[in-house]
Structures are given as structure tokens and as C-alpha cells.
Amino acid sequence: xxxxxxxxxxxxxxxxxIAGAAVLTGCSDGGKKTGTAAxxxxxxxxxxxxxxxxxxxxxxxxxxxxxxxxxxxVTVAIENGTLESVTVAAGGKALxxxxxxxxxxxxxxxxxxxxxxxxxxxxxxxxxxxxVNQTATFTTLKPTGTVSITFQANPMLALKNGGTYGVGQPVxxxxxxxxxxxxxxxxxxxxxxxxxxxxxxxxxxxQSAHWRPEKYWTPGTxxxxxxxLLGVDIGKGVYGGGNASASFTIGKSRIAIADSNTKQMECFxxxxxxxxIPCSMxxxxxGTIGSKGEKIDYLTASGVxxxxxxxxxxxxxxxxxxxxxxxxxxxYEEKIRLACRISLSGEYVHxxxxxxxxxxxxxxxxxxINVAPDHxxxxxxxxDVGDVVEVRNTPKQLQLTDGLGDWNVPYxxx
Length: 414
Description:
It comes from Dactylosporangium aurantiacum. The protein has helices spanning 182-188, 373-382, and strands spanning 22-25, 56-60, 75-79, 81-90, 93-94, 97-99, 105-108, 117-126, 131-139, 145-147, 149-154, 157-158, 163-165, 171-175, 189-194, 199-205, 208-213, 222-228, 233-235, 238-240, 243-250, 254-259, 264-269, 272-278, 286-289, 294-297, 303-306, 309-317, 333-341, 348-351, 369-371, 388-392.
């Protein structure tokens, strides 16, 4: 007996730019933003040292700027002088930054927070050695909310950073809130590969963006995804909560092709067929469940499936799709071993020793791909997450959102 488990996948442009620079000359004068350098004698071009040019400070973002994006860098530059210290702080927390060796420039290395008023405090000296002191403030934007992301291997499994996946593994970024400003979000997300390969983003839902190349990955490819969403308006005043990145490597090419006509599953590793497995697939037929008369079928969907999870033991029950009457011929509840899930609706490649006489001869399952114990163990040991299981010659097509139906969408439409 096998299941058709119904599951629901859980499932989200760039904000205000850098404000203009504030140009400040001289030292502080009771907290004012401009003044003359300490020790200056006054007069045109005045400054200490008999005619030396006064120091000039440039602070970015400009003093009193509002709605500054957290992704904006904070910079301080001085002409005709040198910087001694720069502090940028809000709420008792200072922003990290670096002072150049020549002490003419300072730039932040830390990240600004949303909805904060920052005070920039600068000390230095002019060309004559007179003190230069200055303060200025600016305020960062305050969003109505923020969004966080998860890098996924599939809707049931988070991506393991640094992990190895099969040639069918798409890049998946899942948002905990719906994204409406998709163009800006796509511009903030980047996929880099070695060797280089072109690909596209596709929104599988309002919360899930997938990226894939035109064809299956080349084994050995390294993939890095960066989501630089801090300060990006994802829509309706909601902004990216931060930046994140992850990487993974593509392993061997492992592709299984299960043909409903021949009742055989041919397994290829790096292009070579290494095993032919007799199998039994979905028997077909339709049923009606629930008070609303919802239709259900017992077919294995044709198309490219991507292996999602592997479970040594899983309980499969017809109750998962509404058949609870024990007198119904399609009722079952069984513990199934060596189960490799290939769709959200409950299709697996799994051990089915009770059905061996039908393997290679007749399709009798409720939608899964039944195989004998030795073949089930081999498949479980050799195939893994991201590997491809392609089903052919059934009257039903795998949907995009039923697991990872990405490769069934023509690339021109992706």
C-alpha cells in the first residue's frame, strides 16, 4: 500500500539612497555645524599658521538627513587637516568603521539599524595643528515591518550551507512575508557559479523565488546565492531585515527515468546507465473524498521530479488524502521502509516487497514507484536530495508547486 500524502508548502526595490554630503568647515562652536578652526586668526582664507587654509569636513549622509537607508555607508572626509577619531552611534551602540592610514577618510564597516537617530562625532586637527571638532545627526528610515528569508533545498528542507546537492537542485529563497516589489528584490539577489552559467529567477509563489539554469547543472559546479536585502523595499513599506548568503556544490549526475509503459526505472550516474529496476507505478482511477466531493486520482505524475527527502521509515496512510473508511478498497495505513520522496503530494520511490509479482509487469500503486528490497536499498544509498527522477508516459503532469516541478517549465517561460 502506498500513500498520496497531501501537504501544504509553507512559505516572501531598493530603499532610500545615500543622502547628500554635509560640508562642514572648521571646529565646533557650541555644537554648531560650522565654525573656524581653533587657533585661527580669521580673515580671508584664515587659519592658524599665517594663511593656512581652514580644514573642511564632509560628512555623508548630510546633517539632518531623514529616511536614510540602512545599507547606506557613513563616510567622513577632511581637507587641509587630519582625522583623529570618528564615532557614529545610536542608542548607546557605536557603528564599526575604519580610518584610512593617511587619516583623511573614515568609512563605516558596520550596518545601520532601522528607525534610529545617529550622532556623528568627529575630532581632528587642521594643517596648523589646531583642533577641529564637529557633530551632526541623521535618521534612518522606519519601515512598517521587515522580512526574513530562508535558503531552501525544497519546501520541506532548509538548504545546508556548504552542502552537496544533485544536478536538479534549484536555488530557492523563501520569504516569511509576501513580496510585491519583485523586480527590486530580484536586483538585490545574485547567483554566482563556477564555472559560470546563465540562469533566471522565477516566482513560484509570492513568497518563494527559484533560480535555475536552462539545463541541469554540470557536476562539480559551485553555487553561491547572495540576498542583499537590507534597505530594500519589498512592498507596502516592508523592508528586507538584513543580508544573507549561502553556497552549495553540485555532486555527480544521478538521473532515474521511470517509464510507465515498460514498468522499468533506468538509473544513470554521470551519463552511464548503471541499473535497470523493475517497478510498479500508479494504477490510475479516480475517487471522490470529502463533503465537497473533491476528486483524487491514483496516478504517478509525468515530468521531472527532484528528490526532496529520504526517510528510513515512514507511515503512509490513505487518511492523508481523505480515505478513512477501512472498508474502502483504497484505505491503507502502513509503515514503509527506504522511502525517497519526490513530490509534496506523496509520491515516493520506496521498498514494496508485497508487490514484487507486479514489478515490471503492472501498475498497481496509489501513485508511488514500488521497487523490490534490493533495488530500494541501492536507490536509497546512491540517490540523494537534488537528484532527478523523471517519470514518463502517464496521463498526468507534475505541477510546478507539487515539490520541485521547476524543470517542467520551458526555460523561455521561466
